[in-house]
Structures are given as structure tokens and as C-alpha cells.
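Incident log, entry 3
Record: Folliculin (552 residues)
Problem: checksum mismatch between cached and fresh output.
Input:
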Amino acid sequence: MNALVALCHFCELHGPRTLFCTEAVHPPSPSPPQPGPVIPGDRDREVDREGEGLTMRANSSATQRADMCEGCRSLPASHPGFVSVDSETGIRYLSHQHPRQQQLFSVVRQACVRSLSCEVCPGREGPIFFGDEQHGFVFSHTFFIKDSLARGFQRWYSIVVVAMDRIYLINSWPFLLRHLRLTIQSLQNTALKVFDSEQCVCPQRAVRMNSAFSPAVFPHQRSGNAARSLTSLTQHPNLWASLHSSFSWLLKACGSRLTEKLLEGAPTEDTLVLIERQTEQEEEMSGWDGAEGGGSNPQPSQSESVQAKDFQFDDGRQEDLLGPKFKSLRHLRQVLGASDFRQLAWHVLMGNQVIWRGADPGLIQSAFNVLKALLPVGCVRAVPYSPHYEEAYRCNFLGLSPDVPIPAHVSSSEFSMLVDVLNVERGCVNPVSDDDILSLYQFNISSANTQPTDKGPTLLNKIDVALSNENLSVEVVSLCLLCLKEEWMNKVKVLFKFSKVDGRGKEDTQKVLALLGATGPGEEDNVRLLKFWMTGLSKLYKSHLMTACRLN
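Fresh output:
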């Protein structure tokens, strides 16, 4: 990550000061040697430049040392600093009191002053974002450290992350906030123990109340108390080495969590929905961490727990499931039979609740893993395995243990389907492989729906043709299904824009459906499918259409 992390302190004698900073130095790109004579002096200067980041000679002049007290200093001028090398990328993480480059020194100095003076959040403790294109953008988190000798018994610090990429820094807000809070809480807890022990020996509040106050001698009385270093406040013998490890890991982890990908064309709706869900989950985790830091420990509600599980199972975890499992849609079709599979797929595409009840959670989860490929990501709301029934508005894929009863209003509804997975009783026969699911289980499918499923929707007819064609491999069928979903998602976008945004009447909507090829045999199923898939559109796309409509 092209950023810099710095710990700053507001000194009572000298104002805002930078205590410790960590920066990432990328290895230089190899360049061919230039012809010409080698001058001995040049070689010495090259070695000197390589060690500039460690010795910090440019930032440790005698004038600067004279302006620094113990509270403003982290490492002595003779200290070489800390270096960590990433063996995979060759990036070096250098830590010292000041950056090694004069330009970075000015940027960090300005970020330090702003974070401890004008750019603070309400309460003076917490995160804030500021910056500009010229001086960089800053994520700052201010906090207090307990000190029995300080004014108000506490000192003010901040940790700043400086980067030139505003979008990257904003997208990293939840990650940075979560991990910086861990570092800050560790410092505060360590300093609090030292503070309590010092107060037990000599309570400073009583001493100050009983001592005579004189404005003339007050600066001289406080001159000895204003210079306590962070090492003294925490009594941590390896404080700066520990901060170097934390800051180096933060730069490496934050740089690797977000990567650029080359997309062929605009991102799909599934990609947008996944990004939105990931952002929401990070914000929820950040909010829970913040509440825990404030002393409370909120428990998410049942609906929040269900939403948090939406689409968390994916094909990447399919291999981790133990026991028998469905490998693909074609495999599921072969096990259930063409007729039962079509009925199951029809309920999935229509948005009805599909319930699997059985004693093998792995088998049920594998069934959901392959069935979710029929729907856009935004339409999938799943509870893989639950000890009690969940309502249809919370999930359209529901896995239940075998002893869970189905409510009467659900079993009699045409908008639900139940698949009971029963164990097959076998005598003393040879053991069977996990792939032979039919020899292990029996599947009973039931639904109150009386509408025929052999006419449509058109998408299901095309999927059925692709799955029944044995000349097509599983990979080809998957790509075919992906193209079909994109085709129908484009139809959904047109219908949403025409009916929801523009507010056209039923007659005009019918003409659009005919233009989209959604009329004819299975027209009713096509319309139901399109309306259900509208719920899978991303919030970004919907807000974009609504904004464009208002501007027009």
C-alpha cells in the first residue's frame, strides 16, 4: 500500500509532534548499467543514500534535538530504526521518528498538526478523514493516554494514515478503523495499569489540591511533568518495535486486501451486489467493534443474523463439505429426475421458498450451492441449516433438521416447496461411495402449487435443454447459464426503467414485454420471473436510474 502510518503526540511544551512513522519502500526497477568510468566518490554517496532511511541524518540535526523533550522523542538520533522486508514482494518497511524524505516529512508534519488541532471529531476521540490532492489524504484516529502527572491526567495522541489515493483510503476505512482500534486499546490498557499503580503510590489529585498555586511558578512546576515519553507511560520495554510490527502489518494487509482487476466491459449486477454486501458487512463489523469499545456488547437480532448469512456459502467451500454432495446442476437433475428437477427449478426461478429438510447439512448445503447458480446474487437469501423454521421474507433457501415441523400455512401455500431427504434403510451390503447419493437417500418433493411447470418460463426451457445435452460439459453449461442470466438481467433492467422509473401504463408495458420476447407460451411465468429478479438489482443501479430521472 502506497501510504505512511505515523503516531503523533500533542506536547504541552512544543505542540503537535510526530513520534513514530512507518513507510513502505518499494524495490527499484532494474535498469541496465550506464557505460562510463566509475568514480570512487559516487560509490560512497550511493551507500550513504541507501542508509539514509535508517540513520535519518537529515532529520536529526542539533537544532531539532534542542527543540525536542522526552515526550516528543521516540528513538534517539543514533538509533538506526527498524526495518522489515517482505520476502514475497521485496518491499521494505522502514520505521523511525520522521520520514526519510523531506517532502514526506512536510506532508506528515502537516497531517500531524491538523489531526491534533483543527481536524478532530466530536468528543476529540475517534476517526476522521481530511486532506487534498496537493498534501495527500489522511485517515486520523485521535485518542487519550492516561498520565498521572499530565494536565487532566491524560495526554493526547493520534495515529494518521497518509496516502495520495483518496478512493483507496476511503474504501479501507472499515479495515483501518478496526485494526487501529486494537492498537489504540492495547496502548490505553497498558498505560491505564501504570496510571493506577502510580495513583496507588501517590494520588496526584490530592497533591494538586493541597499544593499552593502561583501563576509565576506554574510553568516551572510543570516543566518536569510535561516531558514524559510514551515508553514511560506504558512501561513497555519494546514499545517501538511492537508499533513497527503493527504498522508494517497494517500497510501490507491493507495493500493486499483490495486489488485492481481488469474487467471486460461494465461490471455485472452480481459484481455490484457482492461489493455492496461486502461493504455493508464491514460497516456492521466496524459498528459492532465501536460499540464494544464503548462498553456495550450488542447482540444482532434474528433478522440481522439471517441477512449476515446471505450468500456466504459459495463454490469455493464446496470442496470442504464432507460426505455425499451434489456437484453440479446436471448431477442434481440426474439424482432427482428430469420432472422433479424442473419443478424444483421452477420454484427457484419464481422466487418461492425452497425448503430442504434432512439430517445431512452438507448435502443440503451442496444442493443450495448448485441451485443458487440459477438466480442473480441479489435474489439469493439463504439459511443453509436451521433448528427452526424461518419465514419466506427472510430466506428463499432454507435448510431444516428432520424433526422441524413445517407450519400449516406454509405447507398449504403454492409459494413454497418442500424436499424431504430420507435415509435409505440398507442391510449388510457392501459400502457405497459418496457419489452414489440415490443408494443413501430418498427424496420426496411436495408442493401445494397446481400450476403446470412444463410451459415456462422461457429461461427454464433453455436451461433444461442445456442440461439434457450430454455433449456439453459442466463447464460449458455453467458459461451458458451465465450468459442466459445476463440476457434476462438486461430485460429486467429495461422493464424496471420502463415500469418503475417512467411509470408507464399496463398497455405500454405489454408492448415492452413483447419486444423483450417475454410474451407467448409461458408469458405469466416470464412476468413473474422478471418481477422477482427486479429485487436482485443493485442499489447503485436503482439510485442511478432514480437520479437520472429526477435530473431529466
